[in-house]
């Protein structure tokens, strides 16, 4: 019986399992982004805003370069916090808001991709933290 299993496993019939085709035209870069991101969908927000936290951003990044990085996705807003003492200088992180959950999900697949000379971090923005930060700023 195990012999049968191993021979079918080694068979050259590659029709046994074929992954569904991925539309690479909507993905910004192919090799890594073509893979389904290893993300727990339960971490994604159930309702808008669908916001991604962007870390390790180059200090010369612009809203345009962020939008270009996520081209093909429905991005609705980019927030790049600046140093209060030096408004010219970015803090090195930011947020990108997406119009739909799928765009956020696709954006997360770009974690560790390069933007400028840096591998940037793309993660789900923790809405509770986001809210706390705002409360602290105003409180």
Write the layout of secondary structure elements.
Blueprint: H1 2-10, E1 50-55, H2 63-69, E2 75-79, E3 82-83, E4 86-90, E5 94-98, H3 101-108, E6 114-115, E7 118-119, E8 121-124, H4 127-138
Antiparallel strand pairs: 1-5, 1-8, 2-5, 3-4, 6-7
Characterise this structure.
With 139 residues, the protein is α+β, with helices and mostly antiparallel strands. The chain has a domain at 41-125: 2-Layer Sandwich (Alpha-Beta Plaits). It has helices spanning 2-10, 63-69, 101-108, 127-138; strands spanning 50-55, 75-79, 82-83, 86-90, 94-98, 114-115, 118-119, 121-124. It has a 4-stranded antiparallel beta sheet. The protein has a two-stranded antiparallel ribbon with strand order 3-4. Strands 6-7 form a two-stranded antiparallel ribbon.
Keywords for this entry:
disordered C terminus, two-stranded antiparallel ribbon, alpha+beta, disordered N terminus, four-stranded antiparallel beta sheet, acetylation, RNA binding, Nucleotide-bd_a/b_plait_sf, Alpha-Beta Plaits, RNA-binding, 4 helices, globular
């Amino acid at each position: 019986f195990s012999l049968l299993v191993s021979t079918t496993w080694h068979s050259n019939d590659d029709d046994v399992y074929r992954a569904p085709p991925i539309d690479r035209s909507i993905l910004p870069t192919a090799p890594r982004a073509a893979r389904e991101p290893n993300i727990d969908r339960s971490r994604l927000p159930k309702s808008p805003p669908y916001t991604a936290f962007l870390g390790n951003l180059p200090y010369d990044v612009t809203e345009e370069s962020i939008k270009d990085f996520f081209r093909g996705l429905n991005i609705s807003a980019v927030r790049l916090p600046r140093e209060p003492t030096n408004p010219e200088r970015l803090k090195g992180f930011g947020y990108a808001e997406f119009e739909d959950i799928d765009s956020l999900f696709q954006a997360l697949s770009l974690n560790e991709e390069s933007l400028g000379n840096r591998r940037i971090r793309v993660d789900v923005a923790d809405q509770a933290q986001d809210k706390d930060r705002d409360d602290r700023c105003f409180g």
